[in-house]
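job 3f2a | input accepted
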Amino acid sequence: MTTLPEFRLETHFSRWEFTAEHHLTASDAETVSMRDLLALADDGDRQAWEELRLGYTETFGDPDLRAAIAATYEKIEPDEVICFAGAEEGLYLAMHALLGSGDHAVVLTPNYQAAETVPLSLCEVTGVALDPDRDWALDLDAVRAALRPNTRVVSVNFPHNPTGAVPTREVFTELAALCDERGIHLFSDEVYRGLETDPDRTLPQAADFSPKALSLNVVSKSLGLPGLRIGWIACGDRKLRARLERAKHYTSICNAAPSEVLARIAIKSRETLLSRNRDIITANLPLFQEFFTEFAELFDFRPPQGGCVCFPRYLGADGVESFCRDLVTEAGVLLLPASLYVSELTATPTDRFRIGLGRLGPEPGLRAFADWLRKR
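job 3f2a | predicted structure (376 res):
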């Protein structure tokens, strides 16, 4: 197996995520307490929780959990869902199931590092850069030009991390059709779906388009429950699902039984949780806009079209890397600089940083940020 490179973002988080006083770059929406989550349970799920026995679970995932997940799709049945220990396991195993040394993949940049480095460890990969000058638009002509006869996967992530971009439904539908016409697997990371600022921009799920498409999702991001470590892939391809199950035998084998019951409760109550988290983002947005307006000479800020992260530009002469380092060491405010999103495949911006809008109570962090800037 090819050795994967250091995961820059996770190394950075290992150093700062739980030591910085103000975490202004969180990728997940605000979480809930066990009490509040259990209060959303119906009688059957509450009984399942109280009577749960802590044995092994099914590799594909708890049948009731898979049924709850399938109900969030238009065309997916419960047996077309396989669960994983978070989205990262699903991404990693899917790439290994889909790609070999003679294959080719296309991925978007900038990206969550694993979306690029895992395919690169397996085959040739071409990057297609989102355009920052057009609100991070997806160029379908660039995707089309990147395709080869041996292209097996086109990997996308919308709402996009780290930019918050969401293409139009027409563009996404055309992308799915392009992949389907050529027998390519569209691998669609949909972990921020449901947090669009305009609900009309919510995209269809890729697995509803074609049996060859894979929809990756998780309870971590939009639902704000990363501690459960429950993700899934929905896909109509039975043989591919069987390969994913066999691959999972070498990693987590099965998910934690308590997490599966709690995830089931959350997914059945997803509209309640999504509405709550959209309200948090809506309430936070004026606070961030006020902050960036005060320091307009230093920042170019555009809110996310979907999800709870975005990628503002830093205009200071010291550069974004020094800026982010000094900010966290001197003021305890954590951001993610552009170096954590550098791609081997395309040029990527060097003057950006990721900021998160999905957590309750950002005011102390924004005050510390502003005080630090005023003293510089």
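job 3f2a | The domain at 42-268 is CATH 3.40.640.10 (Aspartate Aminotransferase; domain 2).
job 3f2a | closed
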